[in-house]
Amino acid sequence: MPLALIAFLYSRDHRGEIHEIDDSGPQRGRLSKRYWIGWIGFTFAISAEFSTVFWAAALLRERFELSSGTATTAVLCFAAGMALGRWFGVSTFRKVDIDPRTLFFVTLQLIGFLLFWQVGNFPLALFGLFATGLGASAQFTLFSTRLIRFASEKPDLAIGISAWGAGLAIGFAPFLVGALSDHVGIYTAYWVVPIFIILAGLTLFVRSDLITYRRT
Q1: pTM
Q2: Cα separation of 79 and 174, whole Å?
Q3: Which of 16, 40, 142, 201 has its CA 20 to 30 A from that of 192?
Q4: Nearest-angstrom CA–CA distance, 80 and 129
Q5: pLDDT at residue 34 tops 70
Q6: Which tens digit of pLDDT belongs to each residue from 182-211?
């Protein structure tokens, strides 16, 4: 708690901002095809993140014959990567547009996951898990920013609907991996994760920098 309080006090924006309620009420209307493609990418990105963290301990336990406690503790490498990335990731390469920045983190996540998933060396597997967390860390923010761009003048609606994707990903993707692992084992079931990552990456080729955002 003390560390969390210190982090909050020293990292928050002290400038202050007043949120003005729109007189027209909640935003409504149709969203573009580009938005929905971005939404699918957002959903796949969250699916990959939660599928990894839910079942990483099971893979470590099976591959390296670890105890449940040791395997679960080792997953902190993923959390460490997430923490470092959340602290610095979004502000990395500020002069680079959102789309290539997102692609960088997706690629890092894919490389890290393949290393974690495939290597038979325990320290290398932990490094891969750390890199996976680092790659996943900034994706929620970056994919959300893309959705806001795609929604043009409906940013609140864009973020509201993104919650459906996050809920679907968190509720369904880890369950899918678990159900598959009951039949084929966690190693084979984990094929789902790189597929999620690649599909999320493919949606980035629908560029968001072509959208001009205007606030009325």
Answers
A1: 0.83
A2: 17
A3: 142
A4: 9
A5: yes
A6: 999 999 999 999 999 999 999 999 987 765
